[in-house]
Amino acid sequence: MPFMRPKLSDLRAQVSADITAGLPSADGLLRFSNLNILGTAVAGLGHLNYGYLDWIAKQAVPYTASGEFLESWAALKKVYRKTATYATGKVTFPASAGARIDLGTEVTRSDSVVFKVSATVIAGESGSAVVPVTAVVAGVSGNTPVGSLMTMGTSIDGVQSRGTVTGVITSGADQEKDDSLFGRMLDAFQNTPKGGSGADYVAWAKAVPGVTRAWCAPNGFGAGSVVVYAMLDGANADYNGFPQGTNGVSSDDGRSTPANVASGDQLTIANSIFVDQPVTAMVYVCAPLGSPIDFTITGLANASTVTRAAVAAAIADVLAEQGAPLSNGSIVELSAIDSAIASIAATAGFVVTSPTVNPVNTLGNLPVLGAITYS
Question: Baseplate J-like C-terminal domain spans which residues (predicted)?
Answer without folding.
Answer: 293-375
